[in-house]
Every structure is written in structure tokens, then in C-alpha cells.
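Entry for the shared binder. Reason: the reviewer on the internal report wants the predicted structure included alongside the sequence.
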Amino acid sequence: MTKEKLKRFVLLVALVLGVIAVPTAPVGAINVIKDSNVCNAGTKDSSVCAAKDDAIDPLVSTIVNVLLFAIGTISVIMIIVGGLRYVTSNGDASQVTAAKNTILYAVIGLVVALLAFVIVNFVVAQFA
């Protein structure tokens, strides 16, 4: 990877993270059924009141978070392995390239895992 490509990649990652980190204005919507006494006024038999309040099961959220934690842990371990391979390469060009690729792909995996963790928790928070 040339310096120019590396600069573009770092700039792209910074841009993507910067766009994701931009705070948005909160939406003023309310849950009419949950925030009112409609279901307590004798209409509990309606399909709206009988609907389950939780759209996403907490078990699913827990499983996804555990899997994303495992992916993040594996990524960090692979960064360490790539660093050790880089240090022990003794200047061999093919081993240096393989070590750099290991580190690069592990960092990409870590970024993807972190973004997935943030997105999943955001979505679960919106529907819970």
C-alpha cells in the first residue's frame, strides 16, 4: 500500500467516523398508546393494546452483543499477532507484507465490530 493510498484510507475512515459522530436533533414523536390511558380505559381487548411492548427480545440483543464482543476480542488478538509477526520478520519483504496485511485487516475488523455494536445498541434502544 503506497503512502497516497494509506492517506486516502485514513481520510476516508476519519470522514466516515466524523459523519457517524455528528449528533442529530431528537425527533418529537411520542408513543400514544404507551403514554396515555387508552388501554386502561376498557379497550384492553383491541389488537393495539394486546401488541407486545418490546419489539426486540432482550435475548437477541444479548446474543448480538456477546458475538460482537467476541469479534472485537479476536480483532485485538490478531493485531497483537500481526505486530509479533512484523517484529519477527527479520526484514523479509513477504513476511513484512503479510504482517502488515494482518494488522490492517484486524483493524478493519475491529472498526466494523465497533460500528456494528453502536448500530445494534442504537436500534435496540429505539425499539425497546
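Summary line for the report: Residues 54-128 form one domain.
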